[in-house]
Write a structure and sequence with these properties.
By secondary structure, the protein is mostly beta strands. It has two helices and nine strands, in the order ββββαββαβββ. Strands 2-7-4-5 form a four-stranded antiparallel sheet, with no helix packed on it. Strands 6-3-9 form a three-stranded antiparallel sheet, with no helix packed on it. The radius of gyration is 15 Å and the shape is elongated.
């Protein structure tokens, strides 16, 4: 998984998933209020690019749990009204963003904002999960680079 966090964008220098879905959990170096994420891919392997993704945040701490309970009643516009990543144990997660990476875009470095209600809530996160739900038709999926930004 380190390959997805590294700056190396050379051909096949990616985190390779054996199918079209999977998830990457990351412990951030410090707790942050996340504003957006960035996903990168390369031109030479369009079918292996991740397509639909859900970006999750692990809800931790007394204040965050209280904020989470207040937000939990919100209607979330994500597939199947999911409330946690595929592999999550019994930990509380909140979806931070649902998006689709576009292999036809002119820029293969693409930025995705977190849901406004999450940003406005003041929730902060130390652990995040990028869940890849599908790719663009390849037998495997390559995540070249994934970055998280916030305050």
């Amino acid at each position: 998984p380190w390959a997805a966090l590294d700056d190396d964008m050379r051909f096949q220098s990616c985190w390779l998933l054996g199918g079209n879905s999977g998830q990457l959990g990351v412990s951030l170096p410090r707790v942050v209020c996340i504003s957006h994420i960035v996903v990168d891919h390369i031109v030479s392997e369009p079918l292996t690019a991740p397509r639909q993704m859900i970006f999750w945040g692990l809800v931790d701490g007394r204040e965050n749990l209280a904020l989470f309970r207040a937000l939990h009643a919100n209607s979330l516009d994500i597939p199947e009204k999911r409330t946690f990543p595929a592999i999550s144990g019994s930990f509380p997660f909140i979806p931070l963003s649902y998006f689709e990476y576009n292999i036809h875009a002119s820029n293969l470095t693409q930025t995705f904002s977190v849901f406004p209600f999450v940003l406005d809530s003041g929730l902060d996160f130390g652990v995040v999960v990028l869940e890849i739900l599908g790719n663009w038709g390849g037998m495997s999926t390559c995540l070249y680079r994934f970055r998280v930004y916030g305050l």
